[in-house]
Amino acid sequence: MIAHRGLSGVEQENTAAAFIAAGNRSYFGIECDIHITKDNVFVICHDAHTARISPVSYVIKEVSYKELAGVFLFDRASEETKSYLTILTLKEYLAIASKYQKHSFIEIKPEFTMKEIEQFLFEISKYGSLDMITVISFNYSNLKRIHKLNSSLRLQYLLERPSDVAIELCRNIAADADIFYQNVTKSDIVRLHKNNIKVNVWTIDNPVVAKKFIRWGADYITTNILE
Asked: What's this model's pTM, rounded to 2 decimal places?
């Protein structure tokens, strides 16, 4: 079970509070999303801007990390801003995952240049074992660049559907599949496994649905709340 953006069913997504809450529970891994600022700092945020999670609307790639660091985020329950809810750096997220010995699932949101991928690989290499990190992305170019530089790093290709083309793309870079659960059947999982591709399904918050995918043999379930 992978905590989607941390324990986002309880705490504001992608914050230290959400990651620590997941760290204190039984999750195998903690997922996060990253962007890069104008001054080349990797930060944790799902959207390309801060408008949904704070009263301030910054486009991440257009501002410095110092500007982002001064933004307080909405509390999930009260919808009031809290001074302890801020945008973290990738380094801070990795430090939390490492402390709680959780596998890190890092989703790269925008397309990164090769130079940015090199910087990203350098940063994650400083936090424990790379065996504790999986990189995921909808952008195949990101995964292809990573595979070229480090063919042993675990990858998952985010997909809407497990098409034949998608399976071949996964095979080309030794990536597993991370698929929207409503578009996955039992036969899809069997077919992916026959191609030596593990299956992560997202995002499941219904325990009945989760148990079905466990019976079907899904390798990972990404969730906002289930353990």
From this structure: 0.98
